Amino acid sequence: MKRYSIVFCLLISSIVASQSLPDLYSQVKSSVVVVHIVSIAPKIAESNVSLLIKSSQGSGVLISEDGLIWTASHIVQTAELVQVEFLDGDVYEAEVISSNPLADVALIKIKKDFDLKEKKAAIIGDSDTLKVGEDIFVVGAPYGLKQSISRGVLSGRHIPDSLSNDFKNIEYLQTDAAINLGNSGGPLFNMKGEVVGIISSIYSASEGFSGIGFAVSSKTAKALMEKPTFWTGMHVILITENIAKALNIPQKSGLLVLTVSSKGIANKIGLRGGAIDATIDGVSLIIGGDIILDFAGIAIDTLNYRSLIEKKIQQSVKGDTIPITILRQGRIIVIKLKKEYGL
After folding, report:
1. Catalytic annotation present for 184
2. Which helix (H) or strand (E) holds 61?
3. 23 classed as catalytic
């Protein structure tokens, strides 16, 4: 009789487990949003200058009842307009509060009065307690298919190798749950329905999902959210070697400004993006924009320039002026950043 009781208990446990994912999805789905983005960039073709308006989308997750939303930095970094769409059809305009392109995590907030209604803010979990091999699930809008769910396991944990401390405390969770275009910025949930990661990228030779996806851990995202951060509103790329030579920069490397949002700090201090599509040494770029050479005496060819710049900003006080040396159309000039823009 005892043996049959054990079998019965195992059967009941199996049934409960099979029901858990639909229940969890029902519990968390109202917190997941589609993030709609409009960006604008100048383009030069055959001596004509035009403005290219581009719309794109990603995902995000509501983490507070007053309208704070986690998403991916690369989704909103140069946005002119950000809108979030909830499962119940509510659409709100949002503003970028902070963005960390290195970790690929951003915080946005609904601008007007937010009516929570039946929506539920997601619970942020402790990603450190998640073990490799545990089940997880992802909810987002791959290819615009709203509120899509995929299931997988935690495949691994990764802290990028670096000789500097630029990647300090940034951890990525690897998963085999299906992740595609549109999932970026969406939540990675554990089997308690807690957010343990923010979807960032995939590894693929074909640009389609091949079983290797990455999310910024919730521990990393929380730590970055608690630090004083700001939104530059610009997309930059580190240029070195042949590309640096081709663009005639007077040092080993620099930061090429590709695009700039009119609403970010970069635009407020006068930085300019590019307007000419080009391919140099096999890399597709937008050239013609400013190239940042030095930030407050910290050369961009310094190995750990990111962490040094972050430290410099933290050490400065409100009212301080920080010089930024740039190369603009063959001329080296200095622009100034005052610590007034929420830095």
Report:
1. yes
2. strand 48-62
3. no
Can you read off the two tokens belonging to residue 143? 């290819």
* Catalytic residue of the set 104, 176, 290, 294: 104
293 with 254: CB under 8 angstroms? Answer: yes
**CATH number of 29-110, picked from 2.40.10.10, 1.50.10.20, 3.90.1300.10, 2.60.120.1140:** 2.40.10.10
Indicate which residue of 36, 59, 73, 74 is catalytic: 74
DSSP-derived letter for residue 129 is G
Give 16's contacts (C-beta < 8 A, 6+ positions apart): none
Please give the CATH architecture assigned to the domain spanning 123-226. Answer: Beta Barrel (2.40)
Is 301 an active-site residue?
no
Cα–Cα dist 259/287, whole Å:
10
CATH 2.30.42.10 fits 234-338, yes or no: yes
Task: Kindly give the parts of the chain with pLDDT less than 70.
Answer: 1-19, 45-47, 161-169, 205-208, 228, 341-343
